[in-house]
Amino acid sequence: MSVMPLVRQVAVKLQIEPEVLERDSLKAYLEKRLRAVESQLFLLTHRYGVHNVEELDELIRAGKYHEFEAFEDYFELDYLQHQRKRLLAALEGV
Q1: Is the per-residue pLDDT at 1 higher than 80?
Q2: What's the structural domain count of the chain?
Q3: What is the pTM for the complete model shown?
């Protein structure tokens, strides 16, 4: 089943405009994804005692962590920060 007929069907049952259901659903989805990303970010930043990937990079350069220890987390942190920015930008448009 296509998404639009399903949205219309549910909107009729809820007695709201399909556009409202679509916008609110999209907003709820983006907020849920943002919470998941922020949760992962919190765990990574807490593990290293940093606020962002730049601070982690500084700690690696200073020798507090060896590159091989933080290699995967470094790239994961960078990816999650970009995801967070994209989700926030998308939420601004909803």
Answers
A1: no
A2: 1
A3: 0.85
